[in-house]
Design a protein that fits this description.
By secondary structure, the protein is mainly alpha-helical. Helix 2 crosses helix 3. It is about 75% helix and about 0% strand.
Length: about 80
């Protein structure tokens, strides 16, 4: 059981945070969004996992582009 908790902690700390950012945007609980992705992946035979990874890639690009820089020399 300790191994599962440490694995969960690792993914929550270093994950893409797609679920939490989407939940904040929609005003929902994070666990509900995660459950939605889990259930929809069973229904669509894993197609939603591709959507999840696409959202993670887009959010990572958005973060890289729109980061606030303190100075002109930080480019």
């Amino acid at each position: 059981m300790k191994y599962i908790e440490s694995l969960r902690h690792f993914f929550e700390k270093y994950g893409f945070a797609v679920s939490s950012r989407l939940a904040d945007r929609l005003g929902m609980k994070v666990s509900d969004v995660r459950l939605f992705f889990i259930y929809i992946s069973f229904v669509t035979l894993g197609f939603s996992f591709g959507i999840y990874l696409t959202l993670a890639f887009i959010l990572r690009l958005k973060d890289m582009i729109y980061t606030k820089r303190s100075s002109v020399f930080d480019l």
